Amino acid sequence: MDEKTKGIIIAAQGNLVTVRFDGTIRQNEVVFVKTGGQSLKGEVIEINGNEAKVQIFEPTDGIRYGDEVVFEKDLLSVELGPGLLKRVFDGLQNPLEDIAEAAGYFLKRGIYLPPLPRNIKWQWNPTAKVGDTVYKAHFLGWVPEENIKHQIMVPFNFIGKGIVKSIAAPGEYTVEQEIAKIEDEKGNIRSVNMINMWPAKFALRFGERLLPTEQLVTSQRIIDGPFPVAKGGTFCTPGPFGAGKTVLQHQISKYATTQIVIIVACGERAGEVVEILREFPHLDDPQTGKKLMDRTCIICNTSSMPVAARESSIYMGVAIAEYYRQMGIDCLLLADSTSRWAQALREMSGRLEEIPGEEAFPAYLASRISELYERAGVIKLYNGEQGSLTIGGSVSPAGGNFEEPVTLSTLAVVGCFLGLSRQRSDARRFPAIDPLISWSKYGERFAAHGDDKMKERIKIIEKAQKMIIESDDIGKKMSVVGEEGISIDDMVTEGIAGLSMDRQNEQLGIISKVLDKNFKFDDREKARNYFLDLTDKIIQLNYLPREASIYGEKKQEILNMIEGE
Ligand SMILES: Nc1ncnc2c1ncn2[C@@H]1O[C@H](COP(=O)(O)OP(=O)(O)OP(=O)(O)O)[C@@H](O)[C@H]1O
Ligand SMILES: [Mg+2]
Predict the structure, then answer these.
(1) In the chain, count of helices (H) and strands (E)?
(2) What's the gap in Å between 432 CA and the centre of ligand 2?
(3) Which residue's alpha carbon is at the smallest distance from atom 8 of ligand 1?
(4) CB 244 within 8 A of CB 423
(5) Who contacts 460 (Cβ-Cβ below 8 Å, separation ≥6)?
(6) Per-residue pLDDT of the chain (565 residues; tens, 9 = 90+)
(7) Measured CA distances, 41 to 46, 53, 75, 92, 465 (Å)
(8) Closest to 202 (Cα-Cα) out of 326, 318, 327
(9) Most exposed residue of 326, 407, 439, 450, measured as fewest CB within 10 angstroms of its CB?
(10) Alpha carbons 558 and 513: distance in angstroms, whole number
(11) Which residues line ligand 1 (CB under 6 A)?
């Protein structure tokens, strides 16, 4: 049964080919199509009798009737181990830099290189001992990889209880060298190296799942103040074209307090990835002082690369992030954009002639999206440590209309919604997150878990949000009937809400004072001037360094101004 199953191509439609095979195969198995001296990678997506539908991840020109197809028995897998950080992979986990070196800068199809570097020697520090009882995903030892202790784990496909029979002495080893021997319950001895394989489309999670109760600081005020994101939670940033989704994701990837960031550039412009590659090696990580690139791994399947590999690119990214979480590390996965990924699903579904759902997306779109975000979460490992994976996806609905299947399905599953608005980005108020539509479910959860500061903050946020919504209505009224047409009370509401909401705690304190104050003015002129002045002062406060003494003076000036009125 060790013989690989073979078949021939009998039909092709775009990158979907039909293969007649002889033997046994299974769903999601990897195949190689031999054509014109090249081997093209693909995946089984439908089996019917002795015919299988296979999606090919590469351009398929030149494929002919009768071309040979080999079924590899393995599912589409991701290779895990030390050496993933700092690197750039494509949607099939090909290391792009290595490919450029081996085959030139213009990617040719049919070239696959091992994802993990085979020549690097890692400094191995064993922690398990001969005679220890271990299960899958238990730690055997670690190697230093950039800023983290990269734990080498018992293979994820190890079944049942194992006994460590031998463990390599401390020293330098490559990923392919043996670092342990483990005996399973049946008495078979298995040689273990640093490489762990995992089928990318399945969640990699061993341990107890916990509720996310800690805040992930993104360092963006409008997020951390009113719409907090949880470590191990999910968020999405839908927005019309050019509203700043990509820039926002880059900002978060730079400044979020997390140990590892995986960026999946899915169907977006290649130039944006180039920007990261140019910028990150020069930027310092504010937490460690080392370079940002040291904690980053990029999976890119840009708009110029084959659509089929887009689908797998997100799964590759998530599986890598889950792998690091399994070591007790905080990870953040950013996917830009999940709409392009959904389009890849739609394209394939169309070729398979499935019954289409809304806007021709497949009927299983919502379940695929929720399966993806489900993979986020906090887990408690067997040794009591905790790891987390936060997933943030951008969504680009056509025309900025949020009433479309991808946005709606995403909103149904995420814990925090940061909606970008065209109006704000046109006014160049970046990040263009609109407080009128955005929400987060995490604030209340943090408060319920004993975060008292958060309890206070929620009250202010609720008050402020109510005020902003009222003000929005008044603003609309004002644009029709003019300032004369509204009452002074309404003008006060409008003035208060015009104050910049997106400030952190201290500023929230100031704003809370403004909200609590019962302002009275005798004429419009005064009210207008007062709020113009106050808004300006509060904005100016932002430009002052908090340590500077002038900051304290200016803050006091504002407080006096509020008290005095
Ligand atoms: N935080 C920001 N600060 C300053 N300028 C910004 C910011 N965010 C976005 N911009 C401006 O908006 C432009 C578009 O942003 P971006 O590329 O992120 O939009 P996008 O929503 O990703 O667009 P697309 O839908 O085309 O992918 C940027 O080139 C930049 O000029
Ligand atoms: Mg973009």
Answers:
(1) 15, 28
(2) 13
(3) 244
(4) no
(5) 508, 511, 512, 515
(6) 568 999 999 999 988 999 999 999 999 999 999 998 899 999 999 999 999 999 999 888 899 999 999 999 999 999 999 999 999 998 889 998 888 888 777 777 888 899 999 999 999 999 999 999 999 999 999 999 998 999 999 999 999 999 999 999 999 999 999 999 999 999 999 999 999 999 999 999 999 999 999 999 998 888 988 899 999 999 999 999 989 999 999 999 988 989 999 999 988 787 887 888 888 888 888 778 888 899 999 998 877 777 778 888 999 999 999 999 999 999 999 999 899 999 999 998 998 899 999 999 999 999 999 999 999 999 999 999 999 999 999 999 988 889 999 999 999 999 999 999 998 999 888 899 998 899 999 989 998 888 888 888 888 888 877 877 887 887 787 777 777 776 777 766 665 555 443 445 677 778 788 888 888 888 888 888 888 888 888 888 878 777 778 888 888 888 888 887 6
(7) 16, 13, 12, 9, 51
(8) 318
(9) 450
(10) 10
(11) 239, 241-247, 268, 396, 430-431
Crossing angle for the helix pair 505-516 and 549-564, to the nearest 10 degrees: 10
What's the alpha-carbon Rg for the chain, to the nearest Å?
Answer: 27
Cβ–Cβ < 8 Å for 330, 277: no
Name the closest-CA residue to atom 16, ligand 1.
244
The type of residue at 108 is: K
Amino acid (one-letter) located at 219: S
Pocket test of ligand 1: the residue of 247, 334, 429 to mutate, having most ligand atoms within 8 Å of its CB, is 247
Q: Which ligand is nearest to the CA of 249?
A: 1
CB distance 397 to 406 below 8 Å:
yes
Query: What is the CB neighbour count within 10 angstroms for residue 528?
Result: 15
Nearest residue (by CA) to ligand 1, atom 2, is 430
The domains located in the chain, with CATH, are 6-75 (2.40.10.170), 122-194 (2.40.50.100), 216-450 (3.40.50.300), 455-564 (1.10.1140)
> How far is the first Cα of the chain from the last one, in angstroms, to the nearest whole number?
86
Question: What is the SS3 assignment for 458?
Answer: helix
Say whether the peptide bond before residue 226 is cis (omega within 30 degrees of 0): no
Quote the Cα angle for 267-80-2, to 5°.
100
The tokens 């049942």 sit on which residue? 160
SS3 of the chain: helix, strand, coil, percent, to 5 = 35, 25, 40
Ligand 2 centre from 244 Cα, in Å? 7
CA of 241 relative to ligand 1 center, distance in Å: 9
Task: Tell me the C-alpha distance between 284 and 63, whole Å.
Answer: 47
Q: Whose CA is nearest to atom 31 of ligand 1?
A: 244
Probe residue for ligand 1, chosen from 218, 246, 302 as the CB with the greatest number of ligand atoms within 8 Å: 246
